[in-house]
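Duplicate of #3305? Posting structure anyway:
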């Protein structure tokens, strides 16, 4: 999300957009602007901003394209949000976690056209790596198939299949020319991806415990 601020250069006011959350601590605190000026022979503008959250207070620089209608091009420094996924998912598909984090950075900067396909790509890694963990011998087959076919053929758990299928529907909307699901947006897509990871974690952990503890222990059988 972006918010508007007015900056002054050469006694002239310009409206620019700045992130509404701090790019370092990610809190939605008041963002103040201080210095602002032309850079690179007036081809762009840079604005020094600051997070008002007491524990943070970092300065960061927003870079814009040419005035008078400046585009926010970059925010630096930028610390990626912490990995929101449990260890099971990070271990199952580190590539999913890293692409998801890049997509979140893009979303954080308001770059929705980049974030959507990024989440879609992250999801493909999640579902394929999960399928490969279930069917390690069919690795090549899984890698070469479309994600939809992988979900239909290699994901037996009905709960995972239900959310993963909907992820695919909304994910296609992020990469195709026409949207089919006009009442659902990027937030819904991200929620569905998180739901898929939750079910995968439940399924994975439950299975691991059943395998580790196949029967009643000898002590328990005596009592
Ligand atoms: Zn901050």
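Output from current build:
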């Amino acid at each position: 999300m972006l918010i508007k601020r007015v900056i002054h250069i050469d006694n002239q006011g310009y409206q620019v957009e700045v992130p509404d959350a701090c790019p370092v601590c990610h809190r939605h605190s008041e963002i103040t602007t201080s210095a602002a000026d032309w850079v690179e022979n007036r081809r762009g503008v840079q604005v020094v901003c600051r997070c008002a959250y007491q524990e943070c207070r970092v300065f960061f620089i927003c870079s814009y394209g040419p005035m008078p209608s400046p585009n926010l091009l970059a925010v630096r420094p930028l610390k990626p949000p912490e990995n929101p996924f449990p260890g099971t998912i990070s271990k199952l598909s580190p590539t999913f976690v890293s692409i998801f984090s890049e997509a979140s950075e893009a979303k954080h900067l308001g770059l929705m056209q980049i974030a959507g396909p990024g989440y879609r790509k992250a999801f493909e890694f999640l579902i394929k790596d999960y399928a490969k963990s279930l069917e390690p011998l069919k690795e090549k087959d899984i890698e070469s198939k479309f994600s939809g076919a992988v979900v239909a053929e290699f994901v037996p758990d009905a709960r995972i299949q239900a959310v993963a299928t909907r992820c695919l529907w909304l994910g296609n909307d992020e990469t195709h020319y026409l949207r089919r699901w006009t009442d659902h947006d990027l937030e819904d897509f991200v929620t569905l991806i998180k739901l898929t990871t939750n079910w995968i974690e439940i399924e994975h952990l439950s299975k691991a415990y059943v395998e580790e503890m196949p029967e009643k222990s000898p002590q328990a059988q005596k009592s």
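Confirmed duplicate; merging threads. The pocket of zinc ion is lined by residues 22, 24-25, 27, 51, 53, 56, 58 (CB under 6 Å). Residues 87-212 form one domain.
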